[in-house]
Amino acid sequence: MRIVIVGGAGTIGRRLVPALRSRGHDVVVAGRASGEVRVDLASPAAIEAMYREVGAVDGVVSIGAHGALDEFATLTSAALAENMRAKFFGQAELVLTGQRHCADGASFTLTSGIFADQAWPGVTGGGVISGALHSFVLSAALELPRGMRVNVVSPTLVGDSAETFGERFPGMRPVPMDELVGHYLSCVEGESTGGVIRAYG
Ligand SMILES: NC(=O)c1ccc[n+]([C@@H]2O[C@H](COP(=O)([O-])OP(=O)(O)OC[C@H]3O[C@@H](n4cnc5c(N)ncnc54)[C@H](OP(=O)(O)O)[C@@H]3O)[C@@H](O)[C@H]2O)c1
């Protein structure tokens, strides 16, 4: 399959891209400043341009764009909306625009995160983004045309980030990278749709 991976040069991508290539897939990595194709999830025009450049792909995986940390006492709805721009609206846009460009039966695999289900200080935006993505995927799975599928992987802290972010989230057990990569592979190569895959270790 020909698969475009937005954010494929990042922490999760560095594991997922070789795994997909070793299974014979033709992978195109996209990012703002990394990979073979330029795209910024915060820009609907850039997403449209990416699809025109890569053609009718069989799969789209999104593992770019984080939610930012926030401070609830000073949080505003405008800041919340800005926080949602790339990770929520950008991933929604990948599907909404992608349904007109991708091949019949193509799959979309999005990425959310554990804060949809588990409250933590400083991640109101992260929780709202991920909860919204879970709801979006349920509706999109019903409505996508031409046999297209959509799923979302919701990781906890991932194994390769444990050293960097572990202190920020004490007591959070990381999900092993092999297990996480296995979830993405199942979404791309399987037949499921409308799935919220909770990779909580
Ligand atoms: N790491 C974790 O522990 C963890 C846990 C739960 C959820 N997640 C979620 O998993 C996803 C991937 O995480 P990660 O740790 O692999 O991220 P990462 O290491 O920071 O890599 C992110 C990748 O996405 C690209 N990117 C960033 N912003 C983008 C944008 N606006 N448009 C297009 N590409 C963009 C970056 O390349 P450029 O700079 O070239 O654009 C980079 O290749 C994120 O949504 C993150 O919130 C991660």
Automatic annotation (TrEMBL):
A molecular function GO annotation: oxidoreductase activity
Work out whether the entry's keyword set contains Metal-binding.
Answer: no
What keywords is this UniProt entry annotated with?
A: Oxidoreductase
CDD domains the record matches: Lin1944_like_SDR_c (cd11731)
| SUPFAM superfamilies per UniProt | NAD(P)-binding Rossmann-fold domains
Instruction: Tell me yes or no: is Oxidoreductase among this UniProt entry's keywords.
Output: yes
Q: Which Pfam families match?
A: adh_short_C2
Q: Which InterPro entries match?
A: NAD(P)-bd_dom_sf, SDR_DHRS6-like, SDR_fam
- Similarity-based family: Belongs to the short-chain dehydrogenases/reductases (SDR) family.
Q: What is this protein called?
A: NAD(P)-dependent dehydrogenase, short-chain alcohol dehydrogenase family
